[in-house]
Amino acid sequence: MPLLLTCLSLCWLACANLALAFELRAQPIAADTWMVEADTGYFTPENGGFLVNTAFIATEEGVVVIGSGPSRRFGEQYRQLIEQTTGKRILEVIITHKHPDHFLGNQAFSDVPIRADAATTAMIRAEGEGLAENLYRLVGDGMRGTEALAPTAPLPLGMRSIGGHRLEFLSVPGHTQSDIAILDHSTGVLFAIDQVFNQRTPTLPNANLANWHNALNTLQALPFKLLVPGHGPVSRDAKPIEATRDYLTWLDTTLQSAAERGLAPTEVMQLPIPARFAQWGEAQAEWRRSIGFRYSQYERAALPWLTPAR
Ligand SMILES: [Zn+2]
Predict the structure, then answer these.
(1) Once rounded to an integer, what is the mean pLDDT over residues 88-106?
(2) pTM, rounded to two decimals
(3) Cα 306 to middle of ligand 1, angstroms
(4) CA of 120 to the centre of ligand 1 (A)
């Protein structure tokens, strides 16, 4: 019986470890450039929070890593994949914005510069712990050992030549208060990250829609050949930019019209999602979340004398 128990315990441990192993595949998308495409669902214990695309560029000086993922465990496995794929050392990590699925893998890269702009670094310092706690609640055990390590180095805007790649760092806020996109002029790859969602419903907890529209215009005017969105597959054209713009416009006008008609949030949640968006990942769930995040602002604007601030 003790032997049986030992076997069962070993099996349980092995199964638990297997459950926490991510299926990471480095997808070559351009010269020296790979992307790891994520699931497009929502945070669950099963997916370990692996919902965000990450990418890396193997320059002659070392590897530039874009995004560190949702957890320490992810970051460690991701780093192994990068080193096996490129055979090169990690040069630096770029954190594009403050959302936790993009930076909570930082601990696995603590020996190299982790760059972000000043605003994002300040927000991660102030909010990182709370953002990590929220992922612990949603993902559970897969987050074990994860702490919110803030970026450690500045991220200057503009052009930098790194190991034979001409990388342009652009400020494109809108999805959050501060967002960075990266255009590799050497390969034509635009890392738009969460400014552009492809076949996955955008998330809006920190969005400024006017700024986001400006950002989409900026991105669409860039001379890119391949676009890497934050969520969903890569694209060779601007269709995901146009679709993201279309969704933000629909959401804005629908919430405004609903507020003017005096609909309650639960009634807004019942409104139909147009067919062109309804097939996107998490369409219903993100619509409900966006109403929770944003609808009270529309109510206050439409009926300021009736609606107390919530
Ligand atoms: Zn985001």
Answers:
(1) 97
(2) 0.90
(3) 33
(4) 12
